[in-house]
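Hi C.,

You asked whether I'd gotten around to modeling the 109-residue construct. I have! Everything is below, sequence then structure, no commentary in between.
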Amino acid sequence: MWLRFTIPRYRFDQLMRLGWHFLIPLSIINVLVVGVALIVGSYFNLQGWALLLATTPAAVLALVAALVILSIDQKNQARQEGATARILCWIKSYFISLPQLRWAARRLW
């Protein structure tokens, strides 16, 4: 039971966003960068540790690209949340002002 409560629960839309906005672009970038590193390694006849040293910077570049993708996604999400908050504030002020207006009208009559 305690294991169930310690693992965070993700909604379906959060899992889909994680997959489509982060994991799939990361995997495509990783395949391309490591593929280029392997081609360069075979061009220079690298084997064993030398090939590992050639592909390690490629993996680091893929990680940096993943962090860039994640930061761009977070900025877009923050921008959307800000726009949503402004719209909700406007709607809330409209609906709050109607009862206040009715109350003031009743007091005047």
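If it helps when you're writing up: Residues 49-108 form the longest helix (60 residues).

Thanks,
B.
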